[in-house]
Amino acid sequence: MITQDEYDIRDKIIDYDNLSLILSDWVKHDTLMHKSGQNIALWNGSINLPRLGQLVIVWPGCAYGQVADYGIKRGREKFELAVWVKLNNDQFIKMLGGECCMLTDDDRLRLDLLSTEFRAKLINAGKKVQQQKKERRSKAVPGSHLLDEMLEKAKDLNSDKKSSFYKITGSIKGLAVYVAIKGGRVDLSGFNVEHISCIKLTEDEARAKHLGRVRGQLDFSIGNDETIMEGYILSLSKLNDESRD
After folding, report:
1. Whole-angstrom Cα distance, residue 220 to residue 202?
2. Among 9, 89, 173, 234, which residue's CB has the most CB atoms within a 10 Å radius?
3. Which phi and psi angles does 91 have, rounded to 5°?
4. How far apart are CA 86 and CA 68, in angstroms?
5. Max CA pair span of the chain
6. Tally of CB atoms within 10 A around 161
7. What are the φ/ψ torsions at residue 130 (nearest 5 degrees)?
8. Which pLDDT value is given to residue 66?
9. Residue 55 has what pLDDT?
């Protein structure tokens, strides 16, 4: 028998959308149970039926959560009474009696530590994946691995993120450095620089390539990161250089 206090607990644990799904799941499995010739679902576990709000460990013992509601689930031989458990990540999972047990203080300490270690591993794995993506892209697009460093060098200038480029500007109107969002390309609009890493473009060449006012591009094919960054930093300095030619 569920008490009013437990109903109040359930309302605090379960949001409206998940409660609707859980109630629909009950109706579905109750119908299936009666069609199979079974009239009632009984609890079949090594522990007594947990009350709403109690903390339990869920199989295979790597997580715990709070009992949010009751349900029906097909067991090995027949339908059984089950519990809906809300895990720490706000996910709801339906467990049979043989799939959960009461949480002790030692269990909670162990699982909290495990959760912390697991989150750290996920973060490290995510960083590793991002680094692998950068390395793969660097092989496919020369210079793309320099993107983060380039944006850092431009942090004191104005940066406007467009659909495919970062538009970097300074105090001199009409000048801009465009850095491709995916890296591997830098266009100098309205000017160029005298540097080994800069390919100069005439007005006609830019028009033929549909590059508008671009008069220079960094040459990432030279394959020397230090030289490319020297040209890039020199380009940024021209955005505020009132003495330029």
Report:
1. 19
2. 9
3. -85, 145
4. 6
5. 92
6. 11
7. -60, -40
8. 87
9. 86
Residue 198, beta-bridge partner list? 218
Residue written as token pair 């009461």: 102
Residue whose token pair is 């995916």:
182
186 class by beta-carbon count within 10 Å (0-12 exposed, 13-18 middle, 19+ buried): buried
3-class secondary-structure state, position 159 = strand
Taking the CA atoms of residue 116, residue 123, residue 154 and residue 222 in that order, the dihedral angle to the nearest 10 degrees is: 150
| CB distance 183 to 165 below 8 Å | no
Nearest-5° Cα angle at 178, 176 to 181: 155
pLDDT of residue 130: 72
Candidates 226, 110, 98, 240; CA nearest to 169 is 240
Residue pair 186/218 in contact (Cβ under 8 Å)? The answer is yes
Q: Is the pTM of this model over 0.70?
A: no
C-alpha–C-alpha distance, residues 167 and 240, integer Å: 15
Tokens of 175: 């000048």
* Ramachandran bin of 114, using left for φ above 0, alpha for ψ from -120 to 50, beta for the remaining angles: alpha
CB atoms within 10 A of CB 69: 25
Residue 197 and residue 216 in contact, taking contact as beta carbons nearer than 8 Å? no
Residue 132 host element (H or E): helix 105-140
Q: Quick: pLDDT tens for 56-69.
A: 888 766 778 889 99
Q: What pLDDT sits at residue 125?
A: 67
- The tokens for 57 are 């460990």
Domain locations in the chain as residue ranges: 4-106, 144-238
Ranges of the chain whose pLDDT falls below 50: 245
Strands 186-189 and 165-169: unpaired
CA angle 152, 155, 159 (to 5 degrees): 115
